[in-house]
Specification:
The complex is a heterodimer. By secondary structure, chain A is mostly helical. Helices cover 76% and strands 0% of the residues of chain A. Chain A is built from seven helices and no strands. Chain B is α+β, with helices and mostly antiparallel strands. Chain B has an eight-stranded antiparallel sheet with strand order 6-5-2-3-9-36-35-34. The N and C termini of chain B lie close together (7 Å). The chains are: A mainly alpha, B alpha+beta.
Amino acid sequence: MSSSAIAGTRPTQVRVYSLLLVLSGVFMALLGWSASAYYVPAMCLGLLALLLWSGRGGATFKWVLVANQVAGLVLILALWLGDRIGLGHAKLDVSGVALLVNLLCGGPLAAILGGLMLPGLRSGRRLFTWFSARPA
Amino acid sequence: MNHRYVSLPVLAVFAAVGIASQARAASFSGTVTLPGGRPAFGVMLSVSNADHTQTQTVYTASDGSYAIVTPYAGSLVLRARLANYDDATTTVDAGRETVSQADLRLEEFADAQGASDALSASAHNAVLPWKRADDRHVFVSQCNYCHQIGNSTTRAPRSHDLWLATINKMEGYLSMVTRAQGIRFASAMEQGFDGKPVKATHDYSPTDELARAKVEEWQIGDGFSFIHDMDVAEDGKFYGTDEGHDKLWVLDPATGGIESFDLPKSDLPRGGLFSGMHLAIGIFTGNHGPHSMAQTKDGRIWITNALSSTLMSFDPATKQFETYAVPGDALYPHTVRVDGNDTVWFTIVASNQIGRFDPKTKQMTVMRLPSNGFFRWVSDMLFPTLTRISSWFPDKVLLLDFSHHRFLGYTVLAFPYGIDVNPKDGSVWYAKLYANRIGRIDPSTLAITEYETPLSGPRRPRFDANGIFWIPSFDEGALMRFDPATAKFESYKVPGVAPGEYETPYALNVYWPTGEVWMAANNSDRILRFSPATKTFRSYPSPTRVTFLRDFSFTKDGRVCSSQSNLPAYAIEGGVPSYLCIDPTGGERDRAALVAAAPPQGPAPAAH
């Protein structure tokens, strides 16, 4: 299949999410000019946009988003409940690792978009079909 | 210069007028004149001891006269200093029981560079060319934060790249500017601090009241000491927390004797919880970072350790320390006060919290303060985590790569800073330096009520005896008065020493017997005294250039004292920090003593 043919069949959902991922990546890159750690989620968002646009690496795409969600959840729970459940000094170690993993996997904007995209990556749904139609 | 010695009969008069405590003293009197021979008013006439570790200063009266009684002897340096004139100095070999006359004449500066070099930092930073109106505001808040900028150390000409590197280093000390502001600040300082002489005429507005005063200074520590706060304890000794060396410096002002006590070691690395920042480099060699002090009725002195997030007690009787961990993710315990029940209260700036400790039950409570907005809430949640991440990579200052202050500015933090107890109802009040709020904590229910301040940068406030809350506005160079009964503010602008110059009042304290407010004026080397009755400020020029004072404390005899706390200390004139006290009537007493002792007769040629 030629690239123009792929473009012609690319679902609207893929186009919209790819655009949002690119815009998020650009926004993170702008923040990175001031605080360079934000270049990391910017690059990850760019990679996610590329994967989604090309329809390749569906498993990678999915698990990056899952890792982002899990890390974000751990971060929130550690900060919220860390003192109550007796994490002590380990609380900030746990939240620190979770924050780094979250940023490595796209950061907070990827978490928001991931929350919207992950349901579509389940078997039979549109994004799953889009990735399944192409070689890994 | 001419000086003569008073005969033994005159010394007998000394004893008769009841200055027994100063009987073994070298005393001086004379006049100071301006170049045309006119009397010089408000001149600081300083006498240093032989090894230059202690200095006493009086101010000349409107007729140019002065009189000073010192405890020193030997080869003593006398220096006359007045704004806009070159220093006049002379050395006198003075015996312990002599009264010497020394007349000094001030001269104009030999060149423009000399005149410029003698100006306080306020003249030099006033010429910085700001392209955006709000840049100066941020500059005042973040670049005057813990030192002068514009003094001889900080105004050295640098290239844009070197200024950027300097600003980046300062960010490692938690100066919180955005990257864009840093670049603009570098441009302003590259252009403004060009090494060319600055012209300004400074007016410290001498008054007859000034001529009644006397200043005493005792050098403490070394050029890398960072004696953040100094407190006068019940035993009359001066205690100072050396945040750079994890030491407590104790001065007995009666004898001049100095002791130091090392804080007990902790398991934390150098720099404590902030080991990931630049704090460990150069100045900070410890890991506790003792910061502020308050004393309970049992005599114990309570110290907030900023870098280790601990509260520590020091018993002056046993010389023993006790350490109490501040639980949770508390970061940077700051100012500490004790209420009427001997409960210890302290602010925790970087995590937006207040700590409460009961020494009797050893129960510690940490309460989170209102975040005041989404981005500050994010800071409250994540700042301790980012500091921990930074500590995994010592000295790399990774916090700067993550923190949203790098694009949103310092106001993403609330920074509860100063704290005090209302004597009327025992409520505890704090000031949020970056969120521009003050707050009240009900000591029984711990309920919190906050008020926005009309001016920004409320720093270290104090109550007067009537329950009026006095708050310095650091960012806007003013004094705020808040009446908790009516919830009304009044503001008083601090007069600069020249048009276009600003002031940075860091801290204040209220002398309860008179209700007067003593306040730091760290940009122009002076201390301010505000009279609520007349709503006017009086200036007390500091004898030491690069005067940067923090907390104020009073002795039982009414002296107001503080510590020279510019960071780094080696930038202070003389190269080391000191304890400083102003005795509002000490000069008057010296004058009376020498008048009673019969002044020396005969003319004396002036010298300079």
